[in-house]
């Protein structure tokens, strides 16, 4: 197995050791934190270019909300939403990842110029995903996921969240390699907010070094998530809305950058780009 691909840049991605900023473009009417704003192809491509101008190193394009209880979009609709945006951004020289659980969407997105497949199910939702990504020879995000559920809490049951997430991620990594995806093409992700309650998410962020110890680049996607709302909720008040969690998101980005994450996936890029730069400057001064 060639080891030359074990560099992000050999795969067309930001280098594994630098904490890239992955901007989010959700082409959906119902994503939890920005649903509907970029539902039109032209608006979505412009938004992706704006995020790059603000400091995003790559753009993650998704056409199906993954929030708990979201109804699934049919494949044709997901293709209609995603492929023109992937193509439009790639045509502008943007590094694009596709956020999908469907093999057909992943394959068509790669044909349109996507360089990374970001599947929140880690290949569990569509049995064709792993062989498709293996054949396409592109990097693949393996995120910790315990299945679809209208009641995410029913899946968020752990004796030791870190130990169990590490074990379940190792299992998925082995399945992905057995399915033909080169280990050097795997990116791992703890799946913050997926089958996890706030204490679980906070514990995973507190133990990012142990996740890094799995030996693959780490993607951290805390942006605007519920656990941040939980942390920000004052006594007796209601949690701030998702769009008021960007400073908290940037705080997690700084922590992730400081602990060696490959990338942080965020909706609001500017604050996180600054946070990552501060983390790098501090490391440089160590
Ligand atoms: N790799 C990865 N992809 C994701 N895609 C969507 C969302 C949640 O939806 P959003 O796009 O509205 O944040 N979270 C993740 C995540 O935690 N990790």
Automatic annotation (TrEMBL):
Q: Name one GO cellular component term.
A: cytosol
Pterin-binding domain location is 19-277
Task: Tell me any Pfam family this protein matches.
Answer: Pterin_bind
Top-level taxonomic group: Bacteria
Record-level Gene Ontology MF annotations = dihydropteroate synthase activity; metal ion binding
Cofactor(s) this protein requires: Mg(2+)
Instruction: Name a biological process GO annotation.
Output: tetrahydrofolate biosynthetic process
Pathway linked to the protein: Cofactor biosynthesis; tetrahydrofolate biosynthesis; 7,8-dihydrofolate from 2-amino-4-hydroxy-6-hydroxymethyl-7,8-dihydropteridine diphosphate and 4-aminobenzoate: step 1/2
Which EC numbers does the record give?
A: 2.5.1.15
For this UniProt record, give its keywords in alphabetical order, as a comma-separated list. Answer: Folate biosynthesis, Magnesium, Metal-binding, Transferase
Reaction catalysed by this enzyme: (7,8-dihydropterin-6-yl)methyl diphosphate + 4-aminobenzoate = 7,8-dihydropteroate + diphosphate
Functional note: Catalyzes the condensation of para-aminobenzoate (pABA) with 6-hydroxymethyl-7,8-dihydropterin diphosphate (DHPt-PP) to form 7,8-dihydropteroate (H2Pte), the immediate precursor of folate derivatives.
> NCBIfam families from the xrefs?
DHPS
Report the sequence similarity comment from the record: Belongs to the DHPS family.
| The protein's name | Dihydropteroate synthase
| Species this chain originates from | Streptomyces nymphaeiformis
Species lineage, top-down?
Answer: Bacteria, Bacillati, Actinomycetota, Actinomycetes, Kitasatosporales
């Amino acid at each position: 197995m060639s080891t030359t691909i074990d560099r992000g840049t050999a795969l067309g991605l930001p280098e594994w050791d630098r904490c890239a900023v992955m901007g989010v473009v959700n082409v959906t009417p119902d994503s939890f934190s920005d649903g509907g704003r970029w539902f039109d192809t032209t608006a979505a491509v412009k938004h992706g270019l704006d995020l790059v101008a603000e400091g995003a190193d790559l753009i993650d394009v998704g056409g199906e909300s993954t929030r708990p209880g979201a109804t699934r979009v049919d494949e044709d609709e997901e293709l209609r939403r995603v492929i023109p945006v992937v193509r439009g951004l790639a045509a502008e020289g943007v590094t694009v990842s596709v956020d999908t659980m469907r093999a057909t969407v992943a394959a068509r997105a790669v044909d349109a110029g996507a360089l990374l497949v970001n599947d929140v199910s880690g290949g569990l939702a569509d049995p064709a995903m792993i062989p498709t990504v293996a054949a396409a020879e592109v990097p693949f995000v393996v995120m910790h996921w315990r299945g679809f559920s209208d009641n995410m809490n029913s899946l968020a049951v752990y004796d030791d969240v870190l130990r169990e997430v590490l074990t379940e991620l190792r299992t998925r990594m082995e399945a992905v390699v057995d399915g033909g995806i080169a280990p050097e093409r795997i990116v791992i992700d703890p799946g913050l907010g997926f089958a996890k309650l706030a204490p679980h998410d906070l514990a995973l962020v507190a133990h990012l070094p142990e996740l890094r110890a799995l030996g693959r680049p780490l993607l951290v996607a805390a942006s605007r998530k519920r656990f941040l709302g939980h942390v920000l909720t004052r006594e007796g008040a209601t949690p701030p809305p998702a769009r008021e969690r960007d400073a908290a998101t940037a705080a997690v980005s700084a922590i992730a950058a400081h602990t060696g994450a490959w990338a942080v996936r965020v909706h609001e890029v500017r604050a996180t780009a600054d946070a990552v730069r501060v983390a790098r400057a501090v490391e440089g001064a160590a």
